[in-house]
Amino acid sequence: AAEVNIKFQLKDYKVSYTYDAAKGTYSRFINGKPHTDKNNDEQLTATNLVVLSAKLKAYDKVGRLEIDLKSGGEAVLIQQGKAILCTWKRDGNMVRLMKDGKELPFLPGVTYYHVVPNTSNLAGHVTYQ
Prior knowledge:
This protein is mostly beta strands. It has strands at residues 3-7, 14-20, 25-30, 33-34, 45-46, 48-54, 56-58, 65-67, 73-79, 82-91, 94-99, 102-103, 111-117, 126-128.
C-alpha cells in the first residue's frame, strides 16, 4: 500500500496518500494537491491510516452527516506500506480494529480515521497498490 486513494460520498473530494518508507509515514493529498498545515505550511503526514465503512445519513440540506459509529463493519488498517483488511467494532467508548478475533495494534505516531458509506463494499471507496 505505497499509494492509497479514498473516495468519499462527495465525488469531488478525493483523499490520497503516498508512503515514504524512509520516514515510515504517509503524506496526505486532497484532490491531487499536498494537504498542508495552515500553521506551518508543512504537508500532513500519518503513521496509521484507518478507513471505516459505516451507515451515513445526511440530516440537512447542507450535507452534514449522521454517522453510525456503534454497529461496526468493514475496515482497513494501512501502515508500513501494507493494507490489512479487518472489521471494526464499538467497545464502550473505543472503536477497535479486529482481525481473526484479535485486536490490531497501531504504530506510534499520528493516526487518521476516514469514514466511508457502507452502501457499497469497501473496495469501492479505498484502493491501494
